[in-house]
Amino acid sequence: MNKRIPQVAELLRAEINKIIIRDFEPPIGMLISVSEVTVSDDLKNATAYLSIIPQNKIGTGLAVIQKFAGHVQKNLGKNIKLRVVPKINWQLDERALKYSAIDEALKE
């Protein structure tokens, strides 16, 4: 496997989190961060996996970040020195949901 793909993924994750911290104002009582980024082999597409807290506001969080996506994409183009900046797709990181379900099951 090409080692450039994980490097680009980590660079995108760090830069997207910086943009979110610097420019994004989430709804009151909500925390949104990017937990992982995967990049396609041709480096043209990337998927950013979002961690949204609290879990009962996941739908609102996804809607808000979708509206903010254009700003993120534009700033990535300015801040990252790549020939082609990958198109970012947003998805919910479901690992946190699975972990909380397991935790609840263990508590019972």
TrEMBL record:
Record has Cytoplasm as a keyword: yes
Signal sequence residues: none
GO biological process, one term: maturation of SSU-rRNA
PANTHER family, per database record: RIBOSOME-BINDING FACTOR A, CHLOROPLASTIC-RELATED
Family designation: Belongs to the RbfA family.
Function: One of several proteins that assist in the late maturation steps of the functional core of the 30S ribosomal subunit. Associates with free 30S ribosomal subunits (but not with 30S subunits that are part of 70S ribosomes or polysomes). Required for efficient processing of 16S rRNA. May interact with the 5'-terminal helix region of 16S rRNA.
Protein name (database record): Ribosome-binding factor A
